[in-house]
Amino acid sequence: SRISNTTKTLCFLGFLNVFPEPSEAADIIISGGHIFTADENYSSAEAVAVQGNSIVFVGSEKQAMALRKPETQIIDAQGKMVLPGFHDAHIHPILGGRSLLGCDLSIAPDLQALTLILRSCVASSNNTWIVAEGLNLGFFPPSGPTLPWLDQISDTKPLLVRASDGHAISVNSIGLALAKIDKDTIDPPAGLIERDYSGNPSGTLRESAIELLETKLPKTNGNQRITLLLAAIKEINSFGITSIFDAWVGSKDIAAYRTVEANGQLSLRVRAALAYGYGDLFVKDSTDTYESLLADRVKLKSERFNLAAVKLFIDGVLEGETAALLSPYLHKKGYRGEITYDQSQLNKIVANLINSDLQVYTHAIGDGGVRAILDAVENAQSISGGKDLRHHVSHLQLIHPDDYERFRELGIVANFQALWALPDEWIINLNLPVVGIDRVNRMYPIGSIVRSGGTIVGGSDWNVSSLNPLDAIEVALLRQDWKANDKLDKDSLSQLDVLNHKERVNLETMLRAYTINAAWSMHQEKLTGSLTPGKRADIIVLSDDLFEIPPQHISQVVVERTMIDGIQVYRHE
């Protein structure tokens, strides 16, 4: 998806009519690169000028240099790409910090490497519990790691390994014994203990059963949480991200954000979704705390932090066979997965949230879960009218084609994790056996939502998967397995080299998904999302012009500079 030279020339000739004349001196002028503005006119420019925390001019280099004063900082982009800061519309920063500072298995390319990393973590840890993050369940089909493997990793200390999807953990025999989980332990509501043929726990626990073990771990205190958040912020900025939607916060997370902001260390704009009915993954909030946080959300709002949404889990995940489907799972007659709320209950919850002017932010994987939340929003809008709240539905692994246009009709944001839209071991080893090839071919219908007029945004779901927006953008353009060795065969779907090429989108679509679309979805499009005079100077510089390189090389591009409010918060060395 390249911009032709003719198109670039027209954009260049047109910016004199698009951008206003400069009128004041600049503190910073960036020029000499391809400036992708992401504005409503699809304009390109030669230069951006910044004064204080705001953009004051976008246009020709000659006009920008007229704003130069002796102390103006001139940044030569050297033919590289300049664009608005990325917006990650679905992320878990504190959990990401936990991965950064803990035992991170997500970097393992295969089972052998994962085993070596985990053994190293066990050998070097002095903690009572050995805890690891980011296990790829695709290496352990169909039911996750089992006790023989877990016990040979550690047979002297309790070991808990969190799956990268956030919906399962695996625990060795010592850990299960400490938690008093055995053959007689009953599966909790909306939870599953994987078992062997004799009914004994086999090592993996899913969904609400996770709590049976997580409650046995040492609690994360306030100072530790701040340390995790600071590590995450640094990492987030390094990938050019200047605004985020934190998809799951509780009272202790909010306290960490407020402390970090008060100390001048919050180099992000944060919109946050409060976990419905209970708090974050470390400590549950009481109902009173939950209600008081919502009541105080206006007082909690600041320059960089805004609690303005509520997070609902509609269903689970396909690999655990807990995602809600419209048609049954294969080999499980009549079983359509688990839905968190019945429709009447969900309708009531959503209507109450919308009546309170709260943005509804949801997890929905299966087409049954997606339809349930669409129906609930439609019901609420029929009661209270079409408020401009810009609700999100995240993940969207399966959407029934009849529901594609409903995103546009209902004004609901389609929040995709595009990095997942490739035929990797998750889809081949875990999803394909339980839903079949026809539904696999409908997964992550990004192109269909775009063609139907819906608004898409990009989110990483970090620490579930890579934080880098460029990784996700590359996948959205190719939908091609990492192991395909640059092979791009549009007819290879039957071999699962490419996951439905008809759902590919172009580069400009994905850049807008991570800039102006995401800013709009966060209700801050007047502040960020495009390089426009009057908006905040949240600007990044990439090492290469994305429009001038093959799409399979996009993930190799690095962020060279990140600025927020005109202040550099990251520089690649």
Structure description:
This protein is an alpha/beta fold. The chain has three domains: about 5-85 and about 535-570, Urease, subunit C, domain 1 (Roll); about 130-215, Diaminopimelate Epimerase, Chain A, domain 1; about 220-520, TIM Barrel. About 30% of the residues lie in helices and about 20% in strands. It contains 20 helices and 22 strands. Strands 1, 2, 3, 4, 5, 20, 21 and 22 form an eight-stranded mixed β-sheet that branches. Strands 6-13-14-15-16-17-18-19 form an eight-stranded parallel β-sheet. Strands 7-8-9-10-12-11 form a six-stranded mixed β-sheet, with helices on both faces. The longest helix has 18 residues, at about 365-385. The model is unreliable at about 1-20, about 280-285 and about 485-495 (pLDDT under 50).
Quickly describe the structure:
Helices cover 32% and strands 21% of the residues. It is built from 20 helices and 22 strands.
CATH superfamily of the largest domain: Metal-dependent hydrolases
Ends apart, CA distance between termini: 30 Å
Main sheet?
Answer: 8 strands, mixed
CATH architecture of the largest domain: Alpha-Beta Barrel
The total of beta strands comes to 22
CATH class of the largest domain: Alpha Beta
